[in-house]
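Take a look at the protein record below and flag anything odd:
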Amino acid sequence: MNHRTTLAVAVAIVVSTSFASSASANHDNDGNKQSHFQNHGGMKQDDSVQLGPRPFYLVEGMDEGKLKDRLMQCQNGPFYKTDFSIGHRGAAMQFPEHSDVSYMAAARMGAGIVECDVTFTADGELVCRHSECDLHTTTNIVATPLNNKCTVPWTGPVPANPAPQCCASDLTLAEYKTLQAKMDASNPGATSPEGYLGGTANWRTDLYVGRANVLTFKESIALNQEMGVKHTPELKGASHQDRIDDIFGSQEQYAQQFADTMEEAGVRPQDTWPQSFNLEDVFYWVDNTKYGKQAVYLLDYDTNKDDVIIQSPYDTMDRMDFLKMLKKRGVKVIAPSMPALLRVSDSGDIVPSPLAKDLKRMGFDIITWTFERADLRQGASKAGYYYDFDPAGVAIKKDSDMYKSLDVLAKDVKILGIFSDWPATVTYYANCMGLK
């Protein structure tokens, strides 16, 4: 058995299912038997999709009501891959982000699309990391001799010593490939490099760190193709723009190499949604590559100002004028974060935000981020950024309530899909509602 096959089997075991249904057949609200083959547009069970217990745990914890009733009817499936479910850095809630095991876990959980965030090495190779300079928290680098090559090496506890900064651009591809991926975390006050590598949040886990390998962009494409999923790579902004200019010649040539890598790997334009927070990258793909039609502009959101962040030099524009400009320039897909798209009404219901209504009115396709990236055990009031649309926790009072927000995003905002750190929760909803 080769190395990749071994990893695939390991992930299959980790996320495999042993479901205990409350009934042997599904029923509608009147007690009549339903066929999911009829209700779900003829979709059939995909035996490679294994959701594990979490979606069932969350649904069972919901308050009584129509949404819970509907979701409870779906415990027997069928379960299948869906483009509505997007693996955010893979399955990063429990697997080290942007690692082979994380990507495979996402595909096993029914994600029809899996994300590689793309940055670069010192010798100009494109690799999967959330940022150019995150190796000190997402890999074991500070506990290896390569710590000495970091822009700022780990030298001791912070703040008595400077905070480390270890970048993919500090290393050659060969050096980068010697690293082991880990959960994104650190313990800045630790007195040893091994201690610094700790700090994983208590609602995540380090159980699946041991065989997590870092990947290049090319390897991530090949793995997606092997697992039968599509692509949504994000070209990351630079921590050191001068390194992009030195290595690639310009930001435009960096964006071109990103597109060239997909083309050389045989990625079909209809099977990929390239993304960037840098609007100039999106414009470049629209104007110069075959991948522009589904290029995604990631629109950031400032919860303090209750509005989107418009990047320079467009930040003097009115928001509606800015959106009209995007439309005119050929941008068809916009991806704001969840808090930008939702609000809580005076009656305590979750509803689409003004931005969500504007985007739909103007004909944009919408993708959003990120589900399962917050600890909701104490509700939205303690969950941080992704649930800032409900700062008092009026609608989202517990983890199971996340399905209320997903239902509004799907049915009222009508998003194309949503990134999730644990794609099974989204796959369950999408399969239950017949989303493809």
Remarks:
- The domain at 82-118+219-432 is CATH 3.20.20.190 (TIM Barrel).
- Residues 1-41 have pLDDT under 50 and may be disordered.
- The radius of gyration is 22 Å.
